[in-house]
Recover the amino acids of this structure.
């Protein structure tokens, strides 16, 4: 297989995309690197959709609340390139530095996200989603993809990105892929590499709690189900930050079940912060109460 194309400037990327057959569409998979099998599933989906797939690898400093989290975020570009080589010859890696994404003349946007940016991750990581909005819009402006592929593990982030795309009337279709899990049920995350084997076992309580909520949804209303699930979770060694049962569109916490209702959890396993979510009520079912 030919060597993977790795570009680090907007100019070179644009040159490469101009060489693309006009009939061949472009898909973007934005990442911060440290790729795992979940990321690779996103890339495979993008390969199935488009003639050219741009995988961006950029650790975005302005979406981190703590400087040490940014500094400690794993950077594994050589390994990322190695695994991407196996997925197809139509993949282009865009690995820019800070000044390519945020040049001196860049005007940082401050988009009013309303409720979407005020709850859950927005509440506990103030400013995080403004950083996400800036980097994703910048990447969309550079690549101009027909498709943009994201994983549902970051459910709230997807809602924010869809809002931003609609607000700026950007011409890209947001494609979502289901959360990729280990056989144990633990959602794959670049942060998992910081967990010991014991901590990985302890972290399974996140998935177990969401499965419990699916069962509870058949007998209890969301408030009751949340209370029981939190009691179950708090018997574990993890420190719960939030457990919310939300409307899938507005992200508002619900008192009665709605189609697509989801549970969202954030918790600390030792020093590692983990997030996950799961659909509790399918889109074609409302629990009978």
């Amino acid at each position: 297989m030919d060597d993977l194309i790795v570009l680090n400037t907007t100019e070179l990327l644009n040159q490469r995309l101009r060489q693309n057959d006009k009939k061949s569409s472009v898909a973007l998979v934005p990442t911060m690197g440290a790729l795992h099998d979940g990321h690779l599933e996103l890339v495979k989906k993008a390969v199935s959709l488009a003639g050219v797939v741009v995988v961006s690898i950029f650790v975005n400093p302005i979406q981190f609340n703590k400087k040490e989290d940014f500094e400690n975020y794993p950077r594994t570009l050589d390994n990322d390139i190695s695994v991407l080589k196996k997925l197809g010859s139509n993949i282009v890696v865009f690995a820019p530095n800070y000044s390519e994404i945020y040049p001196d003349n860049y005007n940082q946007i401050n988009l009013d996200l309303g409720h979407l940016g005020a709850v859950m991750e927005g509440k506990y990581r103030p400013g995080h989603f403004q950083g996400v909005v800036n980097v994703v819009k910048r990447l969309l402006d550079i690549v101009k993809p027909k498709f943009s592929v994201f994983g549902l593990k970051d459910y709230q982030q997807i809602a924010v990105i869809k809002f931003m795309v609609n607000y700026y009337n950007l011409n890209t279709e947001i494609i979502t892929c289901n959360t990729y899990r280990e056989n144990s049920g633990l959602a794959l995350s670049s942060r998992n590499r910081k967990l010991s084997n014991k901590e990985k076992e302890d972290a399974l309580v996140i998935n177990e709690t969401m499965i419990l909520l699916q069962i509870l949804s058949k007998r209890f209303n969301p408030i009751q189900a949340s209370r029981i699930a939190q009691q179950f979770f708090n018997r574990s060694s993890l420190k719960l930050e939030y457990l919310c049962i939300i409307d899938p569109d507005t992200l508002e916490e619900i008192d009665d079940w709605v189609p697509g209702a989801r549970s969202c959890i954030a918790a600390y396993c030792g020093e590692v912060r983990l997030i996950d979510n799961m659909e509790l009520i399918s889109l074609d079912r409302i629990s009978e109460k």
The longest strand covers residues 239-246. DSSP finds eleven helices and nine strands in the chain.
